[in-house]
Specification:
heterodimer; A: alpha+beta; 3 helices; B: alpha/beta; 9-stranded mixed β-sheet; 11 strands
């Protein structure tokens, strides 16, 4: 779309700040316990070699933060839960935890 | 035979697959861009290797939602043969067209080397021309090729003879030392229950010409071509 005048982008920018995310979703994805986690094992043995004691296990996963524009919290949760299942995690090898705040 | 070779952003063995299919085997092969929603008159689909979408999130996780994959799903549902190689295998598991998942190599190393494979069954469009005792010497190049599935799935794969290729040593034995990535059951490739969709981590397309180090990979394409020919003959009869 052609930009008609220079002020347009600035206007949008300001609007974006004003409508800054009011909710945030935090998604923690970890390998299932039954799945081999060579990264976790390697980090664990490195920690042990460094002298940190009392470590029973390390699991390396992913953390995603999603900024949300607000809306109904329950329907947002349902949608994100679906997205976690279909796309953001792979249920064959991963578990996830979804938090919305 | 008409082959469709898919292209995603950061596919990188697409050219190799197209070259081999058209110049070594003399068949028709064309690229199909990931944004296309039709496979045209394809008789078979190759999902090539590479690092589609930068391997972001998980290998193959983003590619599976591209428009062309909807067409591939439909093609597979209609019984059309689909072969995923390396990243293509990862894409097909993410898409749910093949069981299991491919995770980080047990060694954490990116492994780029020759391996030996053995076909565990000749009963598939992708293995019918591979003699039972033949060892295929083909290259691998991957960091996330460790095949994983839960025990029930593994049992089902075995019962249905869906394990197509396994990593073996130079004597043809299923030794753990011959397993380059920690795959369960030394699995290098599997097929779906209907047997028309298969995936493998090694690169048969890079082992079809003596000048690049070997021709054992041809047997996999030979199988697919023979299967298609027989299917056509059966139809005509």
């Amino acid at each position: 779309m052609p930009r008609l005048y220079g002020g347009r982008d600035t206007h949008h920018h300001v609007q974006r700040i004003l409508t800054a995310p009011v909710m945030k979703a935090k998604i923690i994805i970890t390998p299932k316990k039954a799945v081999l986690d060579p990264q976790g094992k390697t980090v664990q043995s490195a920690l042990e070699h460094m002298g940190y004691a009392g470590i029973a296990g390390v699991h390396v996963g992913k953390y995603l933060e999603i900024d949300l524009n607000g809306g109904d919290k329950e329907s947002t949760r349902r949608q994100l839960d679906e997205a976690c299942h279909r796309f953001l995690s792979n249920p064959v090898i991963e578990d996830y935890r979804l938090e919305i705040e | 035979m008409n082959f469709a070779v898919l292209q995603f952003p950061a596919s990188n063995r697409d050219q190799d697959a197209l070259h081999v299919l058209s110049n070594v085997f003399g068949h028709t092969a064309r690229f199909v861009w990931h944004k296309e929603s039709s496979l045209g008159d394809a008789d078979a689909v190759i999902v090539p290797g590479g690092f589609s979408y930068g391997d972001y999130l998980r290998c193959g996780a983003i590619a599976r939602f591209s428009p062309v994959m909807q067409a591939v799903k439909q093609f597979a549902d209609n019984g059309g043969p689909v072969l995923g190689i390396c990243n293509g295998f990862q894409i097909l598991t993410e898409a749910g067209l093949l069981p299991g998942a491919l995770i980080r190599n047990r060694s954490l190393q990116f492994r780029c080397e020759y391996v030996f494979l053995k076909a565990a069954t000749a009963d598939s469009p992708f293995t019918n021309q591979i003699p039972g005792e033949k060892l295929l010497r083909v290259p691998i190049a991957h960091g996330e090729g460790c095949y994983f599935a839960d025990p029930d799935t593994i049992a089902k794969l075995k019962a249905n003879h869906q394990i197509l290729w396994q990593y073996v040593n130079a004597q043809g034995g299923l030794a753990s030392g011959a397993n380059p990535n920690g795959s369960l059951e030394n699995i290098a490739g599997v097929c779906n229950e209907r047997r028309n969709v298969a995936g493998l981590m090694p690169h048969p397309e890079n082992a079809c010409e003596a000048i690049v180090g070997g021709t054992d990979g041809r047997l996999i394409f030979d199988s697919l071509i023979a299967w298609f020919k027989n299917k056509g003959a059966a139809k005509a009869a």
